[in-house]
Recover the amino acids of this structure.
C-alpha cells in the first residue's frame, strides 16, 4: 500500500509561470515532509521541508504548503526556470523514538517537471 | 558541506555473483541508509543503520544484507545477484537527533546492471 502518492507522473509548465507539484499521504504518523529534486544520473538533493506543526514554509522561489486535514502537501515554484526541469520526489517521515533519530524516508514515485521556454 | 561517496557510478555483474556496494561519509554522522530507485516506483528503503554494527530492515530487504563495521562506511551486499536487482542504488546519511535528522543527504548513486 502506497503511503505517499504523487499522482502526476509528469508536468509541463512554461518558463516564468508557477509550477505546482502535489503529494498526498495516508499515514497519520508522518510528522515531517520533504521535497527532493533529482537530475538524471545524480543522487536526489534536498530542496525544502515542513514540519506537521506548520502549514507553510518558504525558501526563495520554493514554497511548501501542508494541509493536514486533507493529508495533502504541495510544492510551488515561482517563477519556474529551465534549471528546475527535473524529477521531484515528495517524502515523509515519522519520528522513530523520543530520543530523536529519524526513520528512513517514505518516498512518492516522483513527478517529472518539464519547464518549457 | 556533507559529502557522501559511493564506490562505483556504474557496475555490471553476472547473475549469482556476490556484489558489494560501498558508501562512505566524511562527517561522522550516525545515520546511514540504502535505497534503490526504479522508474515508476520512486525510492524504496532497503536497510538503514544508526550506529556501528547496528542495522534495521527497510521496506524491501529481501535479497540484501548490510555491514557497518566502521562509522563512516556502510556496505550493501547482494548475496547472489539476480536480474531483478538491476537498479540505481542510492546511499544517504542524516544527522542524528532533533529535527535535522529527518533531512537526508544522498550520494551520487550506483547504477547496477545484473546480466
Amino acid at each position: 500500500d502506497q503511503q505517499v502518492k504523487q499522482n502526476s507522473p509528469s508536468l509541463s509548465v512554461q518558463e516564468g509561470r508557477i509550477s505546482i507539484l502535489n503529494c498526498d499521504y495516508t499515514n497519520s504518523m508522518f510528522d515531517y515532509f520533504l521535497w527532493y529534486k533529482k537530475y538524471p544520473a545524480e543522487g536526489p538533493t534536498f530542496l525544502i521541508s515542513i514540519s506537521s506543526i506548520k502549514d507553510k514554509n518558504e525558501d526563495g522561489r520554493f514554497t511548501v504548503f501542508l494541509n493536514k486535514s486533507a493529508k495533502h502537501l504541495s510544492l510551488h515554484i515561482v517563477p519556474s526556470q529551465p534549471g528546475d526541469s527535473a524529477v521531484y520526489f515528495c517524502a515523509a517521515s515519522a519520528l522513530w523514538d523520543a530520543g530523536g533519530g529519524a526513520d528512513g524516508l517514505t518516498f512518492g514515485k516522483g513527478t517529472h517537471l518539464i519547464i518549457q521556454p | 558541506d556533507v559529502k557522501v561517496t559511493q564506490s562505483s557510478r556504474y557496475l555490471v555483474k553476472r547473475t549469482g555473483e556476490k556484489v558489494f556496494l560501498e558508501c562512505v561519509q566524511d562527517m561522522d554522522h550516525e545515520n546511514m541508509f540504502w535505497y534503490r530507485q526504479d522508474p515508476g516506483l520512486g525510492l524504496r528503503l532497503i536497510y538503514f543503520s544508526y550506529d556501528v554494527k547496528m542495522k534495521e530492515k527497510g521496506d524491501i530487504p529481501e535479497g540484501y544484507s548490510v555491514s557497518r563495521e566502521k562509522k563512516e562506511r556502510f556496505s550493501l551486499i547482494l548475496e547472489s545477484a539476480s536480474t531483478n536487482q538491476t537498479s540505481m542504488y542510492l546511499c544517504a546519511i542524516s544527522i542524528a537527533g532533533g529535527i535535522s535528522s529527518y533531512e537526508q543527504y544522498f550520494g551520487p548513486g550506483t547504477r547496477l546492471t545484473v546480466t
